[in-house]
Amino acid sequence: MPQARIFQRPKNATQSGRARTDEWVLEFLSREKVPVDPLTGWNGQADTQAQVKVVFPTLAAAQAYADRRGVSYHVVPAPQPKLKLQAYADNFR
């Protein structure tokens, strides 16, 4: 039985926008250990399903897809944003 994880995209740290952060992603997990090529040192893998990521508008849609396909999944909760409130005057303390 394939395994997957469902998570919500985090905010991009290098940009101020919040585009695509409301989407949910179903990502299939690898069924085998990823071998390292001894010649190049790169990671290679024959399991192409581990490269598949499916995007959904809601968590319920992602869970329904996994249930229809017989995929076992676990939901990774989105981290709560930490607000660092700071006044401009704090720069000169």
Strands side by side in the biggest sheet = 3-2-1-4
- What composes the largest sheet? 4 strands, mixed
Query: What is the third-level CATH name, the topology?
Result: Double Stranded RNA Binding Domain
Q: Would you tell me the structural class of the helices and strands?
A: alpha+beta
Q: How many helices does DSSP assign?
A: 1
Shape: flat
Structure description:
- Helices cover 12% and strands 22% of the residues.
- By secondary structure, it is of the alpha+beta class.
- It has one domain (3-92): Double Stranded RNA Binding Domain (2-Layer Sandwich), CATH 3.30.160.
- The protein has a four-stranded mixed β-sheet, covered by helices on one side.
- The longest helix has 11 residues, at 59-69.
- InterPro entries: NADH_UbQ_FeS_4_mit-like, NDUFS4-like_sf.
Structure in a nutshell:
With 93 residues, the chain is α+β, with helices and mostly antiparallel strands. The chain is built from 1 helix and 4 strands, in the order E-E-E-H-E. It has a 4-stranded mixed β-sheet with strand order 3-2-1-4, covered by helices on one side.
